[in-house]
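STRUCTURE:
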């Protein structure tokens, strides 16, 4: 999962994620002049929360919960995963407090995290920062989708530091032909081995 922070010395939002060999750290965006540290920290925290819930959909897939019947754990997990498709839309058009102070809050963690990020950006009101953060959120969703397909390169490499409740079908290829013919012929060969 990607963690975000605010470098107060330089005025930059930064990110880091594990690669299995250490953390990769990069700048995300310069915070506009006049933006308070409190608001910058709110964006960083909202990004971290969104990332945590997106990657939870990877580590806790609906398929591992058994049933996806209405109001089951599997159903809730699937709804959280499905909400990733609307992350960008929610960030750009978040639920904001009404004139009388009421706020619509979603029970779906991914959906609410994306609205919360949108509200944090709305408080800063900077189009350039918003566009950069929207692209950052889009890339995080894309990395999740890439990892689900078994491609752990680039940003999706952070999935190597996570543990799934069940094996990803795309990460469990069938045994090699030599294993099928003679499963115990090689030193690293078993019926369930993944070819190197």
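SEQUENCE:
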């Amino acid at each position: 999962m990607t963690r975000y922070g605010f470098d107060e010395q330089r005025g930059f939002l930064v990110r880091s994620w594990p690669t299995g060999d250490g953390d990769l750290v990069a700048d995300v965006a310069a915070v506009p002049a006049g933006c308070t540290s409190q608001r910058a920290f709110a964006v960083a925290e909202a990004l971290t929360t969104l990332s945590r819930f997106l990657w939870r959909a990877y580590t806790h897939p609906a398929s591992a919960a058994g049933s996806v019947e209405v109001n089951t754990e599997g159903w809730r997990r699937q709804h959280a995963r499905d909400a990733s498709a609307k992350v960008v839309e929610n960030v750009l058009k978040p639920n904001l407090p009404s004139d009388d102070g009421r706020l619509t809050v979603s029970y779906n963690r991914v959906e609410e995290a994306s609205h919360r990020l949108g509200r944090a950006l709305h408080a800063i009101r900077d189009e350039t920062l918003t566009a950069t953060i929207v692209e950052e959120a889009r890339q995080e969703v894309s990395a999740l989708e890439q990892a689900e397909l078994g491609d752990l390169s680039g940003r999706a490499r952070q999935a190597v530091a996570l543990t799934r409740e069940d094996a990803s079908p795309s990460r469990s290829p069938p045994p090699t032909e030599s294993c099928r013919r003679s499963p115990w012929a090689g030193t690293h060969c078993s019926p369930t081995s993944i070819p190197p």
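REMARK: The CA atoms of residues 33 and 145 lie 35 Å apart.
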